[in-house]
Known about the structure:
Mean pLDDT: 83
Organism: Pantoea phytobeneficialis
Low-confidence stretches: 1-50
Domain E3 ubiquitin-protein ligase SopA-like catalytic: 623-699
Strand content: 15-25%
Radius of gyration: 35 Å
Number of strands: 23
Keywords: Plasmid
Number of helices: 26
Largest sheet: 6 strands, parallel, barrel
Protein name: E3 ubiquitin-protein ligase SopA-like catalytic domain-containing protein
InterPro entries: SopA-like_cat, SopA-like_catalytic_sf
Number of domains: 3
Structural class: alpha/beta
Distance between the termini: 69 Å
Amino acid sequence: MDRIKNPPTINVPACSLQDNSQPPLPVSxxxxxxxxxxxxxxxxxxxxxxxxxxxxxxxxxxxxIIYLEKFLPTETKKRTFVNxxxxxxxxxxxxxxxxxxxLDRQYFKGLYFNWFGFRSEGxxxxxxxxxxxxxxxxWFKFDMSKVLWVGTTIDGLYEGKPSTMKAVSFSCINxxxxxxKNLIIIDHDSTCIENANFSASRLENVKFxxxxxxxxxxxxxxxxxxxxxxxxxxxxxxxxxxxxGANIDNLLFLQMSDLSGLVAENYKPRSIRLSPVxxxxxxxxDLYLDSINNSRSGAILFKIMDTVKIDAIWVDWLExxxxxxxxxxxxxxxxxxxxxxxxxxxxxxxxxxxxxSALITSFREKWLSDYGKTSVLPKTLHNEIIKSxxxxxxxHLIRNQFLVNQFIGTDADLRERFFKIHPISAIKSYIEQxxxxxxxxxxxxxxxxxxxxxxxxxxxSPTDFSLLVTENQxxxxxxxxxxxxxxEAKIIFFPCAPEKLxxxxxxxxxxxxxxxxxxxxxAPIISFLFSAQLDLNNDENARTMKIKEHLISLLTRKSTAxxxxxxxxxxxxxxxxxxxxxxxxxxxxxxxRQLRHELIVLTVERLALKSNELQDNEKKVAxxxxxxxxxxxxxxxxxxxxEEDSPEALRRLADILIDDLxxxxxxxxxxxxxxxxKTCLFPGHSNAFPCSAILADKxxxxxxxxxxxxxxxxxxxxxxxx
Length: 722
């Protein structure tokens, strides 16, 4: 059975790293090898009885010593060794072997090291293949540096799963030109790999981990390796860990890793390709990429990238993430619905390291163009966005007026350019003459929106525009105007009738959404939730009122600041307030159901003030979705929770409203989707955290299973207050 590839052309001594330019040495042939007695002695009868196996068959553990003593010096035939056990205790053979082993181009169907250490130097198992046999390759308490492994493949695949090597030291190993496959490598003892040589080797489905401890790498060569499905689970590259020339596909990080000691000379883009497993679902997307929603711990992947000192790698990995936003369905959907995810990724795209990346620049500009027209942009990006807008031409500024208007009052250069554009300059002069005069400091400037297709324009006072954006208040001081071109160009007012206002706002989607959202006041919902008469002391009453006022301020956008309600006392207090809505005791279920019905009716009444497009039952569906989304998002870290916990009472309310929705309109939401939503609120296992913010984003993008589903979704998006 010829299973051995051609030998490599170099033999680098163990525990040393050779310069790539040094001429290689041939692997030594094992001649005149003697074996010292083993603790498991082989008898003369064994030697006589098994002579035929020595010459023709597979070699068992008890035959290895005889093979080394009698046959290896003149042996040229490739052998298969089956279930060879090196160990200090037990009856397995060759057991506590005390000699030197030198084998080249051999095949092992089961090679095991357990509490074993070679006592002599100079051991070699080169250019060989080692696979699982009767057992997995679960090596334990073994020092790999005691053997030269050049050119050897170690494949731990056993019954379709990788083998786990525990307390196996890889420091000073030389397995250059070899392969490690299907292995989980754990070393809780030393928690370190140093002076190791993996150069020109192949790593396939290999995981390095020390559990909750860092697995430290120092002065280790991964030069010219080829790898696929390589996993670093809390790995720290301390210093001089060389990946020059490495080609890695699907590099996966589990937990935080520190790559500050990474070396990669002349790095070429896509040489190290990240694993899309990190964005395989909503929970992973949130964990790895959403630094806004994980404000304390940060996004794992971005934190890891920030430890990389090589800009080319940092940019390359960010480019891969950008490509994922359009090529991986789950991330693409999350990107569309989650404002915090977009902010997290876009913030990275404004890093000065990206200046020469055409892909990132194009992606960033497209985002500004798309979302600047439809969204209020986060303050964390304002400075970078202003810098970008300063270099745009007039047509770009006209196409992105909502974006420009957010910075009119703060950036003089941008303001000067925008107000010079015709006919905005004329409209500005007219407003200043007929509506208000700029003060002498020149720091009050009108917000102007101009529809270049028909010459219509809107003026909003700076104060009202600010309140619309920041506090959800409908403007009071505004006017509709029309620019009439010609030889006697002039500007006229026209009445702000509701249909005319609506017609104008449709040309500016973000302005239209803000205006619509501000017109519906959902504060009475919070008042109803907190209307129970409870026997509380003065401190509890004061705290209850403070929580209530904060939730109302969130709905009216008078505040976006978080208020953590995760302490034991706060949880009990909020639970006592809201419990009547989700009580499960037999004597309280009917009352709870009636209260939830009244909550839906109240929400429908608020929606009816702004929309007659839906039937009553469709409005109730929209009301359910609004309330579920509100309760979930309020409980999240964005507002009242922390990464590890969130107010249970709000999650309980959202959870039972999901059940009510399923019952109210059978089929409008399938049971699988409803189950996923409920799991976001209450994960099935104890070490998982609630994903309330993810659920809120999901509901915002979800399309109900009904003919009017798109209208319902639009209402939920348009009137959602947070």
